[in-house]
Model the fold of this input.
Amino acid sequence: MKRALTIVASVATATALLVPGGSSSAAPQAQDRVARVAAKPYTPPVPVWGACTNERLAKAGAQCAMLEVPLDYDKPKGKKIHVAVSRILHTDPDYKGMIAANPGGPGGSGLGMARLGAAIPNGVGAKYDWYGFDPRGVGSSTPSLSCNPNYPGAGYDRPNYVPKRNKDLRWWKRVTKKYAKACSEADAKRLLKHIRTEDVAQDLESLRRAVGAPKLNYYGFSYGTYLGQVYATLFPKKVGRFVWDGVLNADKAFYEANVDQNIQFDKNIKVYFNWLAKNDAVFGLGTSGKAIRKGYYKLLKRLDKQPAANGQLGPDELSDVLLSAGYYVYDWNAIGLAYAKLVKTGDGTDIIGMYAGPGDDNGFAVYNAVQCTDAHWPGWKKTEADAWRVHAKHPFLTWGNTWYNAPCLNWPAPSRDAFDVSGKKVKSRILMIAETKDAATVFSGAVATRKKFRTSFLIEGVGGTTHSGSLSGVACTDNLIASYLDTGVLPKRKKNKRSDLKCEPVPQPTASASARGAAPLAVDDRMPADLRTLLLEAQSSGR
Done:
């Protein structure tokens, strides 16, 4: 769930951890929070449903509304804000209830997720009312948080992520600090103290109460799995059928999870370089993944001295684009063709076309607003020491990820002890999905979450590197999702401490010299291409 400062043109994370030495009172405080939430239930006004302005939602027959919720749930009669919601009602008479979906982030827009039902195999999705929503502060919800759309940290040819020069170190510390300050002056700054995952989970409960559903059914991707864990802890008796894909380890929200990401993304980019080598006939980069990797780091040094693509493509921009290959296999071919063109001809126009650049910072602003306050963040001394230590063995992402999260070092709203997630009171079965080499939410986190939620069942996409890749056409995974949503029944858990069912991962694509990757290759994706893009952009929003 760490995010890239890039969105790949045809497709496009945030995890965290408890900081060592944090308060030991997390568990009692979390129990107090659960009791407090139960003591102050809030029932919102019934939403007024009408036509959606989003063209694809409108075409799909969706309805849209604004859900009125308290800014501060401790003051349910106080100031209100509005969460943008969408829904597509069931068409099958075998009605199963309402189901809400979150694509990840934090900071990802989920309004379009009402269309997810069409991707569920065997027509099971038609048995549900599907709800999408923009979490508080995001997208069409009001107020919407934006701090600096022209944030230099998302610009072109930025100072090198790896701060071996003091001037680069000073620049990154300065601009990330200024971004945090800009958030303190934002129009929606009143959100900053009330945008934790716990607040969003209570918004989910408000949605359930608003539509009169006895239980919440839920499909969460990436950060959305953490949102589901917090909801299940707060409202265990309201948990219906939950699917979590790309499972975040709540005990590592959020700093330590980013450290885990730095290690696994470095491993995944090696997998990608090996794939390029295996397909040398297409890419012409050589038959050794190790040599391609060595050439990549040499190229970073050259770009640091002389950027390509009219001075826009430096080492940071290139590494941001290739980061997507560490997330997902969907666009491996397009990235490979663009990278090969850069290596062989010096032409970086295709690569820079895959880089998002500055613009709407809403996703980045909310990403920080949530993770900087959900749990304590260490100071610069530890952050720098960890970055250099991990960078020594795993250089691909470490410093880029460090600067992406650096606004938390000076965030204008207070953080507190991480929420103590617990599945002890949850009785409903929960289906979890994770690939073995997922770098955004590492597999050990899924195993840890499986242990906490003893009613859960974990599918492992064995050997896969794709993050949150369910409904990509892998029958072993997708058919169990459909069966579970249809019946609520899951196979018996295994007695081991790992996964319960081993499935094929999302397959690596077939290399092609002519295909530019406008659609995923060699993947029987059940999702419409634009919905898959929405999902991937949510998981890499702001970067």
About this structure: The first strand starts at residue 50 and ends at 51. Residues 1-27, 517-522 have pLDDT under 50 and may be disordered. The beta strands are 50-51, 63-70, 80-88, 97-102, 128-134, 216-221, 239-245, 430-435, 456-461, 501-503.
